[in-house]
Amino acid sequence: xxxxxxSLDSHSSTPLYEQIYSYIKNEIQDGGLPFRERLPSTxxxxxxxxxxxxxxxxxxxxxxxEGYIEAIPHRGYFVCDLEGLVRLSPVxxxxxxxxxxxxxxxxxxxxxxxxDLNSFPHNAWRKLSRDLLMEEDKYLFRLGDPQGEPExxxxxxxxxxxxxxxxALPERIIVGAGNDFLLLLLCSMFGGGMKIAMESPTYRKAxxxxxxxxxxxxxxEMDEAGMRVDRLEETGAWLAYVMPSHQYPLGTVMPVKRxxxxxxxxxxxxxxxxxxxxxxxxxxxxxxxxxALQGYDRNDRVIYIGTFSKxxxxxxxxxxxxxxxxxxxxxxxxxxxxxxxxxxxxxxxxAGFLNQGYYERHLNKMRxxxxxxxxxxxEELKSFREICRVSGENAGVHLLLTFTNGMTxxxxxxxxxxxxxxxxxxxxxxxxxxxxxxxxxxxxxxxxGQCECGMACPSGRNGDTVLLGYANLSEQEIRKAxxxxxxxxxx
Amino acid sequence: xxxxxxSLDSHSSTPLYEQIYSYIKNEIQDGGLPFRERLPSTxxxxxxxxxxxxxxxxxxxxxxxEGYIEAIPHRGYFVCDLEGLVRLSPVxxxxxxxxxxxxxxxxxxxxxxxxDLNSFPHNAWRKLSRDLLMEEDKYLFRLGDPQGEPExxxxxxxxxxxxxxxxALPERIIVGAGNDFLLLLLCSMFGGGMKIAMESPTYRKAxxxxxxxxxxxxxxEMDEAGMRVDRLEETGAWLAYVMPSHQYPLGTVMPVKRxxxxxxxxxxxxxxxxxxxxxxxxxxxxxxxxxALQGYDRNDRVIYIGTFSKxxxxxxxxxxxxxxxxxxxxxxxxxxxxxxxxxxxxxxxxAGFLNQGYYERHLNKMRxxxxxxxxxxxEELKSFREICRVSGENAGVHLLLTFTNGMTxxxxxxxxxxxxxxxxxxxxxxxxxxxxxxxxxxxxxxxxGQCECGMACPSGRNGDTVLLGYANLSEQEIRKAxxxxxxxxxx
Lengths: 491, 491
What we know:
- 2 copies of one chain form a homodimer.
- Chain A has helices at 16-30, 42-49, 53-65, 83-86, 122-134, 150-164, 179-190, 204-212, 229-232, 256-268, 328-334, 344-355, 358-381, 409-418, 475-489, and strands at 69-72, 76-79, 108-109, 173-176, 195-198, 216-219, 222-223, 226-227, 239-242, 273-277, 302-307, 319-322, 388-391, 398-403, 421-422, 424-425, 465-469.
- Chain A is of the alpha/beta class.
- In chain A, the strands form 5 sheets. Chain A has a 7-stranded mixed beta sheet, with helices on both faces. Chain A has a 4-stranded antiparallel beta sheet with strand order 13-14-17-16, covered by helices on one side.
- The radius of gyration of chain A is 24 Å and the shape is globular.
- The interface between A and B is large, with 93 and 92 residues.
C-alpha cells in the first residue's frame, strides 16, 4: 500500500497531521489510491511513521470530513468514490444535498444545517449508555409508550418550562424520531386536508411534506417582524406554521407584539392553531431571550415542536411535540396507535443526559463555541460592508448576506465555489403554491426552486442573498474562509 | 418500609421468589405500599432476606411484567398506579391496548404481539454497543443517509437474499423506525389518494393509517388461500396489501399458486403494486419455508416490508422497506428529504449484530423456543376439540380458536378474564370501508370495531373466534393457562 511511502518533514511549519492528510489526498486525487482501497489502520500507520496515533487520527478525520475517505466501523477506512468530488458542478442550495456524493470539493462549507461535533460529549454518552445496558433490564427492550417514555417526557417538560417558558404537561408531549416524523404524525392526525399558512422563504422540508400529504398550503407575506397576521385572515388557513425564535432561513426573531397578534388570530375562531417550530432556540446572541410563543398562549392553541438533533447531535433522532389539550383526543383517536419511533434505550439515554446535568453543561459549552464563531464571522464581514448587508445574526447558527452591488446569488455561489468555499443561496427556500398539493396516480410535479409568489419579500429579491452557517467551522477556518470570500467577491 | 417484614419459608414448595412476589403484590393491593412508593433496591432486599439477588430480581421482574411496579433506571423500583389495575373492566381486543394502564390484572396474557425477551442477547448487545461508542467516531453522530446507513443496507440485502429469497439491492432499501413509519413514508411518496386493496380481518394499524391519510381502501374477500385475486380486479385498487407468509390475524399462509395470480394481477396493468408485509416470517413450524412473494416477482411490482422489532426486540425501532426500481425516482423526489428516523448508532449496532453472526444464533434460539411453546399449546388444545377448532398454527407466534359450540367471542373473553387469562377477540381486526377515509376540519368518525363488510369471512362469523399468542408465555405458563381456559370454557 503506497500510503506507507509518505515522508514527513518534522521541521516543517506544516503540522504533521496536515502533511499526512495532504499526501493521502493527493494520492487519491491522482488515482494512486483507487476507489474502495482500504487504508492502513491508524495504529499501523502511526507505528510506521513513528508519530502518535492521534496525529494519524486527525489526518483521517479531516479526509473523512472532506469526503475523500470513509470510516466503516469494524472494518477500517476506505477510499470514497471521487467521480462526483473532482468535478466542479454547479451548486444547488436545496436542502439535504450535502448528503449527495456528486459534488464539488470544498475547503470550507458554510452549511446552515451544520452542528459542531468536536464538542460532542463522548465520555458522558458512553458512560450513560454503559450504565443503562448494564442493568439487563428487559423493560428497556419492550415496546414503549407510543408517546415516549414517561421519564423522558417528564424531563422534557421540566426543561421546556425552565429554559423556554413552555407549559408542557408530560401527558401532552409526544416524542418522535425527528421533526419530519412529527409533522407526518400531525398530518396523520388531521388526515390531510389541513389548510396551512406558511411564510416564504421557509423550512422547505415542512412545505414539501405538507404538500405531499394532500394539505392546502397558503403563502403569507412577511415583513421585518415575521408573518403578517393582517394578511393571514384572508387565506382561510386554520394552521399557521411559524418559527418565532429564529425564522428559517431569514433569521427573523418575531417581536412580542407580533406574537400576541398571532395568538389573537388563533383565539378568534374555533379550530385555529399555531404550529411553533422552535428548532434552534438554544442559541441566541443579542437581547433578552424571548420565551417560546407557546408560553404566552392562554387559549390552548399552540402546537410546539423542538428537537435534540440540533442541540446534541444530528444522528440523535429525537424530537418532541407538545400538543394543546384540545388536540389530545384527536391524537388518541387517530395517531396513538402509531408505535414510538425512538428506541427505549435512546430515550432513557437522553433522559439521563438531561437529568444528570450533562445537557446543561453541553448547551453552555456550545453557546460559548457558537458565540465565538458568530463574533469572528461578524467581525470578518465588516470588510464586506460595501457589497452586502448582514441580517438574521441575532440567534441560531447561520446568518444572511444580501448583496447591494448587484451581484446575483448564482454568481456569488459560483465565485465562492471557485475558491473552495461553499455558501448557500436563499432562493432555494422560497416556496410557491402553484405546485399541485395533491396528486393522483404517479404523475408528479417537480419541486420548484424559485420564488413565484410575486409578493414583496423582506429579504432577497431587492438584492440577492446567500446563507452562511458557522456551526461547523472553527474560528480559524472562518477567518480563512472569509479571506477567500473577499478574494472571490471583492476582486 | 414494610416490604422488609416479609417472612420467607425456605421449606415451602413455593419458590422463594414467588413468596416475595406474592407478599409485595398483596401489600400493593391492600394499600400497604402506596402509589409512587419506592421499593428497596434488589441488593438491599437480598441482603436483608439473606437470599440471592437473582431471587429478588425475579420477583421484581414478575411484578413489573404484571404492572404492579415499574423500574425507573438510575432511580429504582416504584409502585404503579393501581387505579386501573384493580378494576375488572371489559376487555377490548383492539391493538395496543396492552399499553394502557386502565385494565384488568391477568395472570396469563396470550397477547398476539408478544415477543419473548428472556432470550434477548444482552451480552452481545452490550458488547457491540461498547465497541461502537469506544471509537469516539464523530461519523456516528452526524446525520446519516435518509435511506439508512449503506453498511446496514448491504447487510440487510444479504440477509434477505439468503433467508427470504428477496432480491434487494442496498440502494433500493429504506431503513425506518418501525413499520408504521415506513407506511407513512409510502403515503408521503404517493401523496394520499392511493387506491388500496386490503383483506378483512387485517393488520388494523395499517388500515387506520391508510384511511387517516386520505387513501381509498377497498376490502377484498378472502378464502382459505388468502386474498381472492379474482375479486381484486373489480375494486379498481392499484395497490394490494398482503401478508403472504402469515396473514395477520388469520395466520393463513398464501400458497404459491395464489402468489402467482397476485403477481400476474400486478403485472397486467401499469402502476399496480403489491405491498408485502413480511412481519414475522422468521418463525415457521410446518412445511417447507416459502420464499417471500417479492422473490418471485419478475416485473418490479413488489414493495417489501420487514422488521427487526419482532425478531430482536420490540423496542428496537428498525424496519426496512425494499422498493421496486420503478418507484425509486418517486422516492427520491418525494420522500428522500425526510431525514432518517433511526440513529446511526442503532443502525451500526444492528449491522454488527447481523454481520457477527449474533442474529442467526438468536433467530435459531427463538425458533426453538417458540416451536416448543407452539407444540405445548397445540397439545393442550387437543382437549378443547369438542368446542372449537384451531387454525393459523403453521407459522408466526399466535393461532386462532374458532368456537363450534355457539360460544360468542365476547363470552369466551369474559369467562377467560374471570379466571385471570387474557385472550383476544378476532372481531376487532375486521375493518370496513364505511368509515370516511378523509376528513375535513376536526370532525372525525370513531374507529369501528365490528365487521360490516357483509362478505363471507373464512374464519369467524360462522363461529366466533379468539387469538392466542404464545411468544411471551413459558411452556409451563401455557400449560397452567390452558388448564384455566378449560375451567372457563368447558365447565
